Write the structure tokens for this entry.
Amino acid sequence: MTILDLPRPSFSHRTSRWISRNLIRIYAVLAFIYLFIPVAYTFVFSFNDSGKSNLVWQGFTLDNWRNPCGAPQVCTAVVNSLQIGLISTVLATILGTMIAFAIGRHKFKGRSSTNLLIFLPMATPEVVLGASLLAMFLNLRINPGFWTIVIAHVMFCISFVVVTVKARIASLDPRLEQAAMDLYANERETFRYVTLPLVMPGIAGAALLAFSLSFDDFIITNFNSGIESTFPKFVYVSAARGIPAQANVIGSAMFFIALIIVIVGQAVSRRRGRK
Amino acid sequence: MAGQKVAQDTGDLVLNRVSKFYGDFRAVDDLSLTIPDGSFFALLGPSGCGKTTTLRMIAGLEEPTSGTINIGNTDITTQKPYRRNVNTVFQNYALFPHLTIFENVAFGLRRRGIKDVKSEVDKALALVELGHLAERKPSQLSGGQQQRIAVARAIVNKPEVLLLDEPLGALDLKLRRQMQIELKRIQIEVGITFIHVTHDQEEAMTMADTIAVMNQGKIEQLGSATELYESPKTAFVANFLGQCNLIKAKVQSRVGGKAVVSAKGLNFEIPLTRVSTDSDSILMGIRPEKLRLDDNGINSIKDCVVTDRSFVGTSTQYLVRTPWDLELVVFEQNDEGLHDLRVGDKVSLEWDPEHTFGLDGSQDVNAGADLDDDE
Amino acid sequence: MAFLHTATSSATGPRSGLRSRSWTPYLLLAPGLIWLITFFIFPILSLASTSTMVRPDGAQIGTYVQEFRLANYIDAFQANQEQYIRSFVYAGIATILALAIAYPLAYMIAFKSGKYRNILLVLVVAPFFTSFLLRTVAWTQILGDEGPIVQTLKLLPFVGDSMRLTSTPFAVVSGLTYNFLPFMTLPLYASLERIDPRTLEAAGDLYANGLTTFRKVTVPLSMPGVVAGTLLTFIPAAGDYVNAAILGSPSTKMIGNVIESRFFAVVDYPTAAALSFTLMATILILVTLYIRRSGTDELV
């Protein structure tokens, strides 16, 4: 008997073997489809020739993309969200990075209390964060508006920045800083030429995280914004009557921009590692 | 602000009664040491003996609990590392991953405000023969190449003292041997004091002019490789460098330059200069390659039995059991006169008195033997 | 010349050797911690104090007087027991569903993705670049009466004509599950990715088949990820109200909805505050019990 004489497995047998081996990959494909359904829907309906109410498909048009500010409240809301996002990101990143360095590179009393204080906002439901902040503002007779939103956003973003940057700092080999000092760099120069450049990717990641948390936040913002409009708030309020297609345009655009940023970022870090 | 101009000072490196305590733990215990300018010095010992801590104190990365460190006339005990004219080659190289090789090597020069770094960097890279890699990043280099760049980065600053913290540990055997020769060559060429920390006794013996064997924060013995090997002063040193046979014995007399000692009813002769203790209870030591499988020497043990045999190419290693059930290690060179014994053969051992040494008998016979390598 | 110097690092053994001036860390911590204390701790304390206030009879809506009335809590709980329990049930179901969906996905990316790993990780997070509200609203359309899913389901014989998916608990729970999927997937992935594949090979070498290896080796080693993921999903889900508002109906109200309406619609701050604290306290208790059972102490 040579190997050519052995019976070949039947087609159905081979198929079922292929399926069982790749079951998990098939599952993953289905899972990804599930993840992207609403995104796809949003994208498709951004082309809807809908007028005010984007509930039923009425026809394909590029008008919404050509004129995203056609529904005026959309652009006001987006601009607000962007401004709030930018300011909150800068503040939260600075404050959070400072805390991360204190925790990661220094000894001090009260370390575990600090860790707890950082952890608590992340473990508190947004309703409670938003409601309590609003209660305080009302008690102080401060009217909620643009700056109360910024205050709230910075507050809940700090923890995320700390966690992200702290992780990056922890992965840093302390011997690199020792080597720098061995090579005539004092504390300030060591920080500037060695520590900071190496921690920077973590800080950048934290900033991106803070921005996306801020831009997309609804619950805390809703409590503390008064009459000020942000993009998520606008969507919520107009959900009942039908969201203008321009909002879909913004949403889809955000998706693509973010996707491009991430892909470019990955390519850059891969190139930097290789060069 | 450019790094402060470092005080130029030629001279010996002197550690005077340096100690480093961590709570109750004595990492370095009252250590005094003089390392002559321009020598290749090794700190040898098992992991945890304090050699790395000592090195870090010289570098300024740790501060002594007590004692002083001087280079020539300058007291550097409390100086920050960036003020000292001392550079370190770290165990894992610690090359800056975000800088090119060129910038890594130039780092120290730039911090000191030196304008023209290119010629110095090029010279240093040429010394380690890696000039063609100047624009790469450390992650693109092999372990051996990274190690040489770490050396170049330190040497380019022309320090008084160059510290090497087990730099060859991560390299494979062949590369390690190559680098040992390389480092020795570089040291001779630039004439800087090298202090090399290692747990590998072969490495220390190959490279260093002077070796200090450390154990539990103290120096056990200081000397050249030959001195330490042929005339160890403690059981730890005897066992740590190579292999050693130690036999408990009692001094019977010290007359005419000779000590006569007895063990198990047999008498042996040791030159008095090679007995490093006044006590009457001693450990008599003989290196395995000094034992001969014959019975007509001054020092001899008859009626032994071969219990194990290993042929390792250059020699045959025997385990031989004495009539009182002590196992001795014997190396026989693989040349003419080969005895070619088998397990179970009866054999006698003999050796010259000049090859014997006598150590204080109160020590642990196994001190320094079979210590696990810490990697 | 003997030189005495007090040891800097004591029982912790050799540290990196970097010593800092003692006030640097406090300077670094101060701004951020002050912000958190001012805008997180104080508000919470303020909320606590509001929770025991009472509106005096005949006073204008929105004015309250501090009377330390602890019965506020009991009143609030009893009036909203249903929504309260419903929140935890929905959050619990959503967490379990998210775990069931995310685990195989995370497993696949960790072990079977080859060179596509980074792309897949990006794809897991990518949908969430679109606004969370837009996505939830999209689900109302997709699950809507005119949408493809309901239309297809109505073709089945046992489905009545009045069948609907929106404004049902099903829709709310699906919304919750969907929206918190990345919070579940990423920690799971991180934990699975850390498992040395040689551990799994060793299990096979020791006579474990695929299923046994998974049960006895993979799952226990991925527990830190499971704990982190379930916490990151359950806690926000319990307090959510957006999904219930958009995808649900008055009968699917969660405690978050009640708090929001108490605040804005009814202007009954003490009740809203009491409910908030009850929510927080319950979450804290559940989380503590959960963590103690699974034995993970390092969360941050």
